[in-house]
Design brief:
5 strands; about 170 residues; elongated; alpha/beta; Rossmann fold; 5 helices
Length: about 170
């Protein structure tokens, strides 16, 4: 099931980038890895990931800038922050920028990352189901409105004919 799910990993620590990418690949995710924010944005455009894992403290374009750029394009895009920053201000800023989750490195148990990703994909699936249900309901409302309008027009026409007949009798 994961094989059609694509994850973008952006982290300037080569060891983290390699370990996370390899781990996710073993879980059958499609993974694209970027060592900095600039390359991460290029991969975001080309790879069209479902979820991004982003470190916020990087040289050049930092994770906050990457998050801002991504959420400008796709406001509800799932981003999970993976960072060495234990600063509450960073966590708050990440959440304000739309992060779905915040993981502090080093990760003691990398399986936790998999669990967090599973939750993100469950949320994505629910959002997609909600979107489809909303479209269905909107279509139903449209169809029923059209039927009601047609019936109203039919009844108005019958009423006009009845009034004409009553007018001729007088």
């Amino acid at each position: 099931m994961e094989s059609n799910r694509k994850i973008l990993v952006i982290d300037d620590e080569p060891n983290v980038l390699n370990v996370v990418s390899r781990f996710l690949t073993t879980k059958d995710f499609m993974v694209a890895a970027a060592p900095n924010g600039e390359e991460g944005m290029r991969l975001f455009e080309r790879f069209s990931p479902n979820v991004a894992l982003i470190d916020i403290r990087m040289e050049g374009k930092n994770g906050f800038e990457v998050m801002e750029a991504i959420t400008r394009q796709k406001p509800d895009f799932p981003i999970i922050v993976i960072t060495g920053s234990n600063d509450v201000k960073d966590a708050l800023r990440a959440m304000e920028l739309g992060a779905w989750d915040y993981i502090i490195k080093p990760m003691i148990d990398i399986e936790e990352l998999y669990q967090r990703l599973q939750k993100a994909f469950e949320k994505l699936d629910l959002l997609e189901q909600n979107r489809k249900h909303k479209e269905y309901l909107e279509q139903e409302v449209k169809v029923r409105t059209e039927k009601l309008e047609a019936r109203i027009a039919e009844l108005e026409s019958l009423l006009e004919k009845k009034e004409e007949q009553n007018g001729k009798k007088c």
